Protein 1
Amino acid sequence: MSSLASANQSSGESEDYSYGNWYIDEPNAREEASQPYETIPACQHSFPPSLYHTCLAPLSLVAILLLSLLVKRRRLCLGCCHGTFGLPSPLDFLAEESGRLVPVAVFGILFTKLCVLALEEDPLPFLPISSPAGQGYWKTLALLYYPALYYPLIACATVRHQAGYVLGCLLSWAHCAVQIWHKVECPQTPKIYKYYSLLASLPLISGLVLLSLWYPTQLLKSLSQKMAVTGLEVTGKSYYEDYLRHILSGKRSKSSSSVANPSFPSRILFYFLSHIYSPQRGFRLPLKLILSSTLAAITIYQEVLLLLVAFVPNLQKAREGITEEVTYMLAGFGLVLSEDKLEVIAWVKYYLWALEVCYVSALVLSCSLTFLMLTRSLVTHRNNLRAWHCGATLDGGPQPQKPGVGATAIFCWMSFSGYQTAFICLGLFLQQIIFFLGFVLFTFLVVIPILYGRNLLLFYMLENTWPFCLTLILAVILQNLTAHWAFLENHQGQQELTNRKSLYAVTFLLFPINVLVGIMVGFCRMLISALFNIIHFCQLDLSLLPRGVETLDPGYRTYCYYLKMEVSQSHPAMRAFCFLLLQLPGSQRLAGAQAGLRPSDVEEGIRLLQTKNSARNATRSRQSRIRWGLAYTLIRNPSLLTFRKKSLSGPLANGSQPSSPNP
Amino acid sequence: MSSLASANQSSGESEDYSYGNWYIDEPNAREEASQPYETIPACQHSFPPSLYHTCLAPLSLVAILLLSLLVKRRRLCLGCCHGTFGLPSPLDFLAEESGRLVPVAVFGILFTKLCVLALEEDPLPFLPISSPAGQGYWKTLALLYYPALYYPLIACATVRHQAGYVLGCLLSWAHCAVQIWHKVECPQTPKIYKYYSLLASLPLISGLVLLSLWYPTQLLKSLSQKMAVTGLEVTGKSYYEDYLRHILSGKRSKSSSSVANPSFPSRILFYFLSHIYSPQRGFRLPLKLILSSTLAAITIYQEVLLLLVAFVPNLQKAREGITEEVTYMLAGFGLVLSEDKLEVIAWVKYYLWALEVCYVSALVLSCSLTFLMLTRSLVTHRNNLRAWHCGATLDGGPQPQKPGVGATAIFCWMSFSGYQTAFICLGLFLQQIIFFLGFVLFTFLVVIPILYGRNLLLFYMLENTWPFCLTLILAVILQNLTAHWAFLENHQGQQELTNRKSLYAVTFLLFPINVLVGIMVGFCRMLISALFNIIHFCQLDLSLLPRGVETLDPGYRTYCYYLKMEVSQSHPAMRAFCFLLLQLPGSQRLAGAQAGLRPSDVEEGIRLLQTKNSARNATRSRQSRIRWGLAYTLIRNPSLLTFRKKSLSGPLANGSQPSSPNP
């Protein structure tokens, strides 16, 4: 056994154990020496968090009010404020052409704050906590406070105005400076693990850094160019035009993979990337899905970090702190690992080390599986979106026969990102528990017995039941063999049943054994079903229930309705047509106005298409057809524009009939 | 609290508790008085089981040999022994026309014996047990011994000969007499519960009684009628003719439900029966499904019996045996239910009674659910079979494009009944555990706190987290309300999205709360999925895995292949045609022979259709078409038979070409 102990030393914890050998008689002295239990000095911020919030909350409020005034002013100038109130929109979830960087960054900041908040004792530093119950109330309040605090960070970008960019710069710099200053001043915190707070805040800080770089860039751009907004619009326009051309041309454009003889690594890379990013021209995943995926990645990061720092350092400390007392404690429970106390300590340390390895392996496995499932989800999302765009429906999902959206769809759409994040969190946790248990059982019942000949529980069980197991295995093999060689006859190229009487006799005689085989198969069924559900728990695009009752699964139901809403409100072809219809006359009509057409005006485009004469449906549909045809022709033949200018801008602006149906 | 105690008395255990009040100071005396722990006297069988087996095993062997000789002799007489060996077939699983009573009875006997065997110490009474390990070997051996022992009981019926019936009478009487004699002599056994052995053997004894009545009846029939076998054949023939006529007529026959104005109860009964028994004329569930259902019912009986007698009497004993010592024991664990010792005893008794109620309720619920699932399975089986008969395929199952059977299908077909039985057993057990836990949690966390104001754990938790819960609920309600009233606009009868900016703002602001709502929804998802899978675990016709990966579920895979085998081998239309083809000339050709055509000769009918000239496929298919047409015409016009006798019996007997293709 001493050879084993030395093997242990060389493999896992060489220095710890060698120390343990020498200082085993002075456990207290050694413990104090090797484990100073480094006390983290109480760290006082020179700029306390309460002051930070007291300054930044009013600043944010002022920013919102200013932005609101700005929006109102522009609205009033344009003379159209139907349905929009003063508050600037945080972001346009349903538009493809709005930037994706700022929403992703702000959602990341918000979610990271939420994660950090869950473990913080002082959720709202500017409010005094009266009791532990009060802490709960403040946490609930903080769930509403932090979105409001970060609201201006995202709203400044959507206003697309120099004043907005200036405000954005100020706010993001202030947030970023304070956060970085706090972390530099106090990098270590006593909670859970000394660097946990720092590591957990990394996404928050990187998001803030990103914003405090993005806003100045945009400000500089808008200062240097007179019409900075046009650049963005041109992108949106070209995107939609591209998409429309691609859809209407009817033939697939050659993908970039048609390069002659790509190398093997680049092929693999391309194959992997083709799952994440669609090679179809003009097709983009909706912003909400991009957001959900980013949030899912942050969730995985935060959860893995927490699981890691909450378990591994403590286990390592426990391993280092093992002394002779453990042998007495184990003996008290009737567990005698060995006669030699040193050996017992070595074994306990070895077991703890094995436990740690199992834990980390389970974490790695569950993390990779969750990432894999996330990637697969993206593929499924893309396929489903494309199918819905073509009018297909999801298996078991809501039927798209009703063209409008319902309240359920809106509710599901609002909750989708939150649910996706929560499911990733729960799924990863479930996987970690199950895989950890599985690895521990495997290690302690199979690996250690085989390596060291200890804990032979499973092997004793096998030894006692081998005739039974052998009978079951033999029966299965026998049935398979007889099915192959005795009961099948090759009759003119077609396999036919033969020897029926023997088949019946074997079926009858082996029935009791088949019942027992069935018990084993039943356990397999349970295991497969449970593992499948746990691994796929984080996927919203997959129902955990079988065919026919899929929508009983609340996650899948949310996904189906989310998709319905997304497709009905942002079908790319529809949006492209609306955008172009507005763009063509608009760019000329509003050439003298201060601002060009914003992508959010597409909503107005949809409204324009709804003519007022509901009674004359036939005329309306004819009108619509003519209009689409007109728009399409004009896209393909831009030279005609000059001749059609008046007749086109007329009917689209006020909804009357076009002067001539034939372009 | 004393009012509660008196309430307890009146509700649950009035006499026990009132005794307890009086005799609380003499616990030992009272215990001995009220609980004599009735020792069951050791019971010696006057006809020991070892002798029973020593007599009956050779008798069964002799019976098998005699039957084998009988079969051989008849086979030799007929001059066709292709592929059949001497051993008589136990039953014709794939034929619809064979009787169903005997197979059901014998399988029931065999399975009951298997259940009783699992708990028996002496699985093979005629062999001495050397050690507990030896007991395991004997049990494994018994799995093969008992099917062989009961083999003649079923084989005697399939021979359809007077000698077979005589042997069947002898064997069934012997088995039945010995079993009944044993139970009458020793109705009580010390194991588990005094009457457990008697109750568990009931299906075995009733099966034996059934057989010992059936064989004499058949013997009398065959003695009184010269051609007793013909009766059976006529049944089979008329069944197939009916089915064929029904299929070929193309119009649905009126079902029996068309009686004018049936009463409400009879309607309900009919509705229920229509699920179990198909009203379609001529359609019958295959024998294997009938067998599996019977075995499933026996499994439920045996398992419920075992679960009931293993828990309830022991709990009742424990409840009666509660004395003052329990208070000390509880105090030792730091549990002080009350200051008054009498009250503590009352509470413990009440809790035990609640536990018992939960257990029995869970058992009733799981038993009813399993029965319901079994009924639903029968409906699905029928629908699936009909769909396969028409050439449809199961969702995700194997494609029926390959017309022949494969080894997998044969293996799955052989194991099907065993698996179904095992899954019912496992499923019921799982349900019992889960429902019991659920009921206990519900009773002790919700019902008792509400009724008596104790164990307020859940309510304390709710009290501490109410602002959190309220926020979540309010957020969900708010989102639903705004989705309905603020973000939806009724635009010419069609609902359209409006107020987009507010929608985006609400989505952003409520995101953190939606993550927490998502955690709750995730728990619901887990619960729904787990409950669904546990409740449907016993159903083989339902995959527990979602769409696309259904056949990864071993149970569903077995079911699909079983169905494929069943349909390919016993398609009713095919069998009906074969039967008729053989029947028409056979009844005249073999009129002088001792025995008529047996339904098992249908196999030969299938063979006859395969002509030897594989090269001339075109001729063959023309031949087949002509033959089917001929047979059909003759069925519809029996008067033509006399004119066609010679030309028909010729080609069918030796497979040569028919002399005239036109009937």
Protein 2
Amino acid sequence: MKATVHIFLKPGVLDVQGKAVESALHGLGWDGASNVRVGRMITFDLAALDAAAAEGEVKVMCDKLLANPVIESYRVEIA
Amino acid sequence: MKATVHIFLKPGVLDVQGKAVESALHGLGWDGASNVRVGRMITFDLAALDAAAAEGEVKVMCDKLLANPVIESYRVEIA
């Protein structure tokens, strides 16, 4: 099974990388870009019996290793 | 308009971050995880007239700033 995890900083947490990208875009003339947020995306293959089991397992992975649940939120997709 | 850019290393380019995550997952007992790839996801609001114009503009942004087209591929979504 193919798992995809999207990890973003929680709303309200200052996204310094996003701010840097935003000011770089403005510097290049794209003044219309705003609210830039930079996140991570992790994809992997997972040996699991069914999608529900895979999703539960990936959520445990996120809480233990992939994301920092204090400041980051994540979304799991199983395909 | 809301733009989302997914940026990944091209297939064949060594993904050291992905390898590190993979061995960490194995170390925690998840031996079923393989082919781990870590990418970036950038979301932002964009002032544009229509979706086609926005998509073209975001692709130029990717080529100029957001991605490294030599080793990275990207996918643009406009919503």
